Amino acid sequence: MLRFILRRLLVMIPTLIVVSMLIFVVINLPPGDFLSNQIAELRATGQEAGLAKAEFLRHEYALDRPLPEQYLIWIGVWPGPSGFNGLLQGDLGWSFEFGKPVAEVVGETLWFTVILNFSAVLFVYLVSFPLGALAAIRANSWVDYLAAIVGYIGLATPNFLLALILLYYGQRWLGLPIGGLMDPRYENEPMSWAKVGSVLHHLIVPTIVIGLSGTAAMVRRLRANLLDELGKPYVVTAKAKGVPPVRRLTRYPLRMALNPFVSDIGSLLPSLVSGSVLISVVLSLPTIGPALLEALRAQDQFLAGFILMFISLLVLVGMLISDILLALLDPRIRLSKRKRS
Amino acid sequence: MSRAWKHQFDPEPWSPDDDAGPASRLDPGASAGRLMLRRFLRHRLAVLAALFLGLSYLSLPFVDFLAPYGANERDVEHLYAPPQPIHLFHEGRFVGPFVYPTAGRADLREYRWRYETDATRPMPLGFFCPGAPYRFLGLVETRLRLVCPPEGATLHLLGTDRLGRDILSRLAIGAQLSLTVGLLGIAVSFGIGVTLGGMAGYFGGRTDYAVQRLSEILKSLPELPLWLALSAAVPAHWSPVAVFLCISVILGLLDWPGLARAVRSRFLALREEDFVMAAELMGASPARIIGRHLLPNFASHLLASATLSIPAMILGETALSFLGLGLRPPATSWGVMLNDAQNLTAVETYPWVSAPMIPVILVVLSFNFLGDGLRDALDPYHDS
């Protein structure tokens, strides 16, 4: 098992390298950078005083060097103007837009992003498992149709609109709070149960909205898998031998159907994380979503680059966890991998 | 089972034909295409979706004629006007389709617009009458429209937005961009996917490895943030058409891994088939084998998976435009329109501004049903 995890971690390294290159290219696609735009603006308005500072920053952050070199400095395998200080050394760079280090800008929002996505994944599991199983056992009953309808709504509604609508009606009918991640009065308070409760309360709407389309996909998937299993001869045999219904279901068919259920979460993660970025902007949640949008608009490249890296890392780690879970659940996967290598 | 039982109690002599089982199809000679069509027609929802989508796409060139107003035609007297019904009877008497005129006033206490209907003066609608000028198919300048508001009244069937533009007209005109963005995007992703997947499947070895890893990595990246980053790179001073093309390419650029994988696995599976070997032995060139023997075998399969990935692009366009990084205002698309519905005031006070979500939902659902139906129909010899 340990070897499996180790190998899985090793595979992540080249992936991360390619991802970081891709992100660097994407970030540098727009012509110019934040500082060169600023310098042009300062020149145009004749503010010579700011020029020197901008030029200094440009040199300080190596923006005057060729792109491949900038990339190497950014990830921290090439000495920049002040030695090795890139992502690998834990230096996330400087946010020009906010005028402070990237680490300070993103700060706490990283945790909220992780919490939000974690709760969305949890929601997907907790809702789609019973719903999918029920839809399969009671195929073509009202539960099944209800699950299908909810699924189609989740699939087809643009989730940002769903967020607004749920937020409005949630507020109106259920008194759910609007926007933010906690009650303002807990903002600078130390951790307490009341604060946790407030955060959980605020998480309800975003979690549902982010998780809904994923839940829809998972319900369909689980239903199809379970229906396949339930039609197999061993289930008929069990029935003929008089195994009680619940035991007949949980003993083997459910376990078999669970497998793709776990592995699917990996392919679901990218869209979940995408959704969380969008929803955070709409509901003004303090995750890195709004900061990303701001950074992209202003060409604040270190900030945007780090956020994109972080989001990708989040997905990759999620996939790693789902792979490990799958290997724990199903010995066949561990063994087949070992045989191949 | 009943057939097997029959002979235990049936005095009739047994004939081997009885055990042949029911004819698996009514007409064994029907072509594959015919069987697919028949199977597809059995899928009610898919047929309905196909009809709806066909109608929508066919009407795209004529939306200017169908819409009562122009996309950017402003009516400053009717800002945020609510939807207006069409009536047929006035005081129990049949008049034909008509509307009542409305007049707006600013409610300064609640700070919103209020509209009052004058139910005493029915005003019949005009048909095939001159409206705001437009260029039919972008060529002929004309003013002819299917239906126009009566003189001195308005025809806002779905209300108006912040600037007093007719929402129904904008919906129709926005469909041109919103519906084609998915098609263009899928064309891009199809091109990349089939080329790379085909190369991986046909050449194998290192090419295969590289394509596989690249598609795995792309699949594991969250799409929306990358779409955002890419569309932020589209220069702000470009014309709406250039921006539109760019956005479609961006949408397609990240979507190909799924297709490439499907193409590759099909290639690998089919390469081992006897008919490919036969073609090879008869001296067919690789191009002929691919084009004549391999592609037709899974073209239909690809069509189904392409249909299923169009909705993601349509939703992607809406999301990008909604965030202000996709299509930009002089252009009209459903996402651009939804940009106006961004705040809670819109949901609460002027809910009709969110109307574009209805066509978005319908189109996305239709593509899903159509794709499902196609996928089921494409396997005509497999009984489910």
TrEMBL record, chain A:
The chain crosses the membrane at residues 9-27, 110-133, 145-169, 199-219, 257-283, 303-329. It holds the Pfam family BPD_transp_1_N. Keywords: Cell membrane, Membrane, Transmembrane, Transmembrane helix, Transport. Residues 110-326 form the ABC transmembrane type-1 domain. The keyword Membrane applies. It is a multi-pass membrane protein. Its main location: membrane. Gene3D superfamilies: MetI-like. One of its GO terms (biological process) is transmembrane transport. GO terms for cellular component: plasma membrane. It is found in: Cell membrane. SUPFAM superfamilies: MetI-like (SSF161098). Belongs to the binding-protein-dependent transport system permease family. PANTHER family: INNER MEMBRANE ABC TRANSPORTER, OLIGOPEPTIDE ABC TRANSPORTER, PERMEASE PROTEIN. This is ABC transporter permease. It comes from Azospirillum doebereinerae.
TrEMBL record, chain B:
It comes from the Bacteria. One of its GO terms (cellular component) is plasma membrane. It holds the Pfam family OppC_N. The chain crosses the membrane at residues 45-63, 179-203, 302-329, 349-370. It is a multi-pass membrane protein. The keyword Transport applies. The keyword Nucleotide-binding does not apply. Residues 1-25 are annotated as: Disordered. SUPFAM superfamilies: MetI-like (SSF161098). Keywords: Cell membrane, Membrane, Peptide transport, Protein transport, Transmembrane, Transmembrane helix, Transport. It is found in: Cell membrane. Residues 175-371 form the ABC transmembrane type-1 domain. One of its GO terms (biological process) is transmembrane transport. Belongs to the binding-protein-dependent transport system permease family. This is ABC transporter permease. It comes from Azospirillum doebereinerae.
